Task: structure prediction
Amino acid sequence: MALVRRLQFLRSYLRQPGVVGSISPSSLALASALCDPFRQSDQPACVLEVGAGTGAVTRHLGRILGDSDTLDICEVKHDFVEALRKDVLSHRNFVPAVTSGRVQLLRVPVQEIEHKDRYDFVISGLPFTAFKLQEVLDVFRVVRRLLKPGGVFSYFEYVGIRRTSRLLSMGNRRERIRGVSSYLSNNIRSHQFQRHTVLRNFPPAHARHLRFDDGRA
Ligand SMILES: C[S@@+](CC[C@H](N)C(=O)[O-])C[C@H]1O[C@@H](n2cnc3c(N)ncnc32)[C@H](O)[C@@H]1O
Result:
C-alpha cells in the first residue's frame, strides 16, 4: 500500500509539478515535526491540514487527535481526496471522529475557505517554492484570516530548495523564485518562533512554525 501511494504521488507530480510540488510524500519524522506545536498543546484545538496529498501527515494527526479536537483536511486534487477518504479516514484511529463530525474533508483550494478566526493550528504541505508569488501571498493572507489570534501556522520546505532552485533556473522562473523566496524570508524573520530540521526525510526538510502575533493580515 505504501508503494502504491508513492507511485500515485510520483505520477501526480509528473502531471502537475506546480500543484503537487514534491516527488514523494513526507516521512513520519517530518509529519511529527510539523505537528509538534499541536501535540504540545494541552487545550482542545481546531486544526486545519492544508495540502494533505495521500495523507502522510493526516495519518500522524489521526494518532494524536484528542477526543475534543477537530480536524478539517483540505486537498485540491480529487484523486488524493478519494485516497484520503478510502485509505486514511477509514482507519480505526479516525472512525469515531469522522462519525461524530469532528473530522471533515474540504475538497477546495485553501484560498476558497471562508472562515475567520476558526483554527488554533494550520498545518500545511503546500509547495510554496513551486507556486507563483501571488498564490503564496493569497495563501498567507487566507491562513492569517483562518487562524485565531495567537494560532500557529506550520509548514515545511526542503533544505536549500529556494537557493538551489534560484541557481538552477533562469529568466521568469528565476524571478518568480526570487520573489517567493524574499516573501518567505521576511515572514520567517518576523514570525517564526520554532524550526525543526528533519534529516530523516527525502529530501531533508525544515519544519517551520510561525505565529502572526495579532492574528490579522
Ligand atoms: C508536497 S504535497 C504534500 C502532501 C502531504 N502533505 C505530504 O506531506 O506528503 C502538496 C499537496 O498540496 C496540494 N495542493 C496544492 N495546491 C493546493 C491548494 N491551493 N489548496 C489545497 N491543496 C493544495 C497538492 O494537491 C498536494 O497534494
